[in-house]
Amino acid sequence: MDRSAPRSLVRASLGLVAALVSTVLCATASGAAPEDTGGDTGRTTAAHASSERGCPVVYFDLGETLLHTADDGSTDYQRGAASYLRALRERHIEVGLITNVPPSWGTTDAERAARLKQEVDATWRGPVPFAWADFEGRILTPRTEAERKPAPILWERAKAASGRCRVVYQAETAEEVEVAATLGFVPYQVGRPHRPTFLPVGLIELLGRRSR
Hints:
Blueprint: H1 7-27, H2 43-52, E1 57-60, E2 67-69, E3 75-77, H3 81-90, E4 94-98, H4 109-123, E5 139-140, H5 153-161, E6 167-171, H6 174-182, E7 186-189, H7 201-209
């Protein structure tokens, strides 16, 4: 990544998202997206629906974005995260994780993801299990210490794996959001005051329909 990339580019990306959030919230007060009329809920229908909507793919950080770690070390969903993931699932919007874990947890993303699941599930205290199945095959983790965020490689891998789909990145830290913006992601910092906790689902569908 070119660290000298103009900060004005990042500010423009963040400003555009903020403006679109306001537009979507005003236009769709209920926050609902058009109903999907397909009867088949399998992968084929999901892929078809994604294609029609510009196939947005939404990547997240994990800790303090989708899940919260309490002072006693127990974990649970961050407030609103479970219902937000459910809304994305209902719209057939693909999701993924870009998260730092020790590279020693495995030799492949799948092995490291399996260890991550074990670690989180061992401390989980929430009434609803974490929706690991939503992220199957799209959990990107560092293969070396040099690949740990905020190094750009995990975002680059996510973007390459998403083909021509528009990619979104949501996290609680401004630094990660800014790095993602410089790499072509639609950035959104979650949990900011005076705006939605997460990027509205209707807006993600709108972004997916925009020509690239």
